[in-house]
Amino acid sequence: MWSILMPSCMTFSAMEPRTRLPSHRSCSCKGHWIFVGVLGTALVGVFATGTEWQLLHRGNAAKVHVMNNWAVPADAPANAIAQGLHVESSPPPQRVDPSPFTSGLPLVSLSNPHVVHATDDATPSTSPRPDRATTQSTTIPTTARSTDDRRDAFENVAIVAYVPPGQSKFVREAQHMLWASWNYSTSQVSGSTRGKTDLIFFAHRDVMDRMPASCARLTDITHVPPQSDQDQCFVVEQTPTADDYWHRYSFMFSLSFLAEPRFQRLLASYSRLLRTDTDVVVTPAFLTFRPRQFVVGRGGYMDEEYTKGRIKELAADVGMTHQSVYNVGSTWFGNASVILEMVPKMLDVAKFILESPKYGVDQGFPRWHVGVASMYAGEVVVNHFIPKQDVWLNMESIDINCNGDEATADVYHSHCWPGEYQGYFKKWAFERGEYTSEAFPRATLNISVIRDYFMAMAVYGY
Predict the structure, then answer these.
(1) What fold characterizes domain 100-460?
(2) What is the rounded radius of gyration, in angstroms, for the C-alpha atoms of the chain?
């Protein structure tokens, strides 16, 4: 509106492309031409502004949710989900606790309560594994925003993993799989084309000295490390106290560090987090992987319809919604603030399962196994926090089996699934020390195939 009151021979811009009023030489034109020019410019400005607003909010009218404003500044606090991510200013209405089982369980406060009423009509993006990978095998769902978006491409990522004490295999995995592949990958992709990807090990004090020597030890985690354009590896001590609740279910230590208040500032300084185990490798392709959707790997904990129905019942009992996204893996890749908001709720659900007389009774795997309570809890929380259409259950480029024949260029993350597979790389054989340079000479390994890539990282660190 202020632009309309400006002299007609000045120039202003409502939005791109820029709109110019008549030049100074035209100011002497007849009055009615000036009036027509000003009026026309005003109409263009109003229309352009309206168009810009519609473009910025396209799709938000039907689904106002934390995932709509995907990008979060790198310095956003952990509670950014309650600040910059809310589209509506009015607070969500109070939700009714539907079950006595939820006593003491803090429920999730979403930016939009409509997600509670989600239907099963929308189908989550899934990528079934092809018979054999080709260069065209990895197809990002059409609802995912292109990773060529310059803003997304330069978002900073932290790969985070917990290294427990007690067994040397976890240290060897951290060194020879996760660190080796990260170190190799960051040397293969120019930093000028992407945001940095850091690796952070949260390690028990008993294994701190056995972490890769090139990883900087962060002793003062009250301050975020100085910003750097270089990819960096850090080691942070995370030793659970003797009375920590999760000693009764120690796998949860691989997740509970994400809920530690003292780590929030460090973790929230990144745009995105990849929560992963240590028996994995990442590939150079991961360094430029910036999908709009919340990406999860595949789970292997559900083979029966009974389990699906029981998890849905669990979600209802804890006052959460389940949108029929099943078999959610433990590998999560998404917005840092969203993940940091989700993990405490996941811990609450897992604790509820373990203590519940209804859900804490083991019925055998895969029907209902308390030993995978973390997987059940993760599925419930992902369904509750993320709209179904924004979940990418990625089965062909995340958590790919380490003995697969997929093209490495088509894979972002490969996982060493347990078991004596008849394939190429076996987790137990690695732990027994059977993979050596004598058994697998470097010249015989074709790292363009994921199974050889995995072997090269494990044996040589390449």
Answers:
(1) Spore Coat Polysaccharide Biosynthesis Protein SpsA; Chain A (3.90.550)
(2) 26
